[in-house]
Task: structure prediction
Amino acid sequence: MLFALPDPDTLYQALLDRDPSYDGRAYVCVASTGIFCRLTCPARKPLRANCTFHETAGDCIAAGFRPCKRCHPLKPMAESDPVIARLLDALDARPAFRWSEPDLLAMGLDPSTVRRAFKRQFGMTFLEMARQRRLREGFTALASGAPVIEAQLEAGFESASAFRTGFSKILGVAPGALNPDALLRADWIATPLGDMVSVCSKGHLHLLEFMDRKALPRELEKLRKGAGNEIGVGQFAPSEQIRLELTRFFAGESADFDTPLALHGSEFTKSVWRALRAIPAGETRSYGALAQALGRPSAVRAVAQANGANQIALVIPCHRVIGADGALTGYGGGLWRKQRLLEIERGYLGG
Result:
């Protein structure tokens, strides 16, 4: 890296001071608004607890944040590539439009060229960026109490069936099946490693997963059946607590998670999860070492299965388990995330 970010407190002070020396080299993501800005942004300054910092605008977009309309953090990228500039303008002009490759062809653009340009600058395609933005707007509208049809329109879906399909791919449940008064409520959380969904009751966190985890629909279905086939969208006290704790974790402030957990598993599985939580941030264990610690040295396979059954990511740190040879092993959120989480936690060693 050409520029290593200083600590979060230094960056937050630079944000307060609107320090121009960080322009283009650091960006702030604001969890309370869902937007990201340059550190020189003239907008009202957010609370420190709501801020995480990244080296690139692409990292902010990948984490689910939208660019600020006051400081225009994407302007340099747009100026460097006319194709990007044109499509970003088009997305701002029609944020609810359902973009497709034929639309790009109609604009005289080659979809392959567009795909490469956006992947190079942002790590995602233009179509992925547009779809993520639309679905998040729909989720946010539902969480605020809007009826399904209003959320559908807010997300730019002319067809109710298309909105249901898109929404169901994320949460595994159609928006019309969501009960705002349900015992369990899902909340959307943007993080530096991508959007996550939490599911909470009034007193406990039941699920915390990355949105793109393949097992997410199955996990949500299991929770929904256990709650009388009802799940809602919104927040309880644990929803706010885990959001704040995740913000602190990614900001390098604390690796402690104190949100009360509801564990759904056998007694053996729960014992594995408790053993995972006992691994200090910055350290790792093998499946064999976990089995030994549990007094079940021959239960390595069962330990691995319990590890894979974890549905409260980060809080129950299954990413801290590696192969006996030190190699990264499978992780439901993706090996790239596992690697990044371990890198982040090295900063907590000795803390």
Summary: The domain at 179-251 is CATH 3.30.160 (Double Stranded RNA Binding Domain). The mean pLDDT is 83.
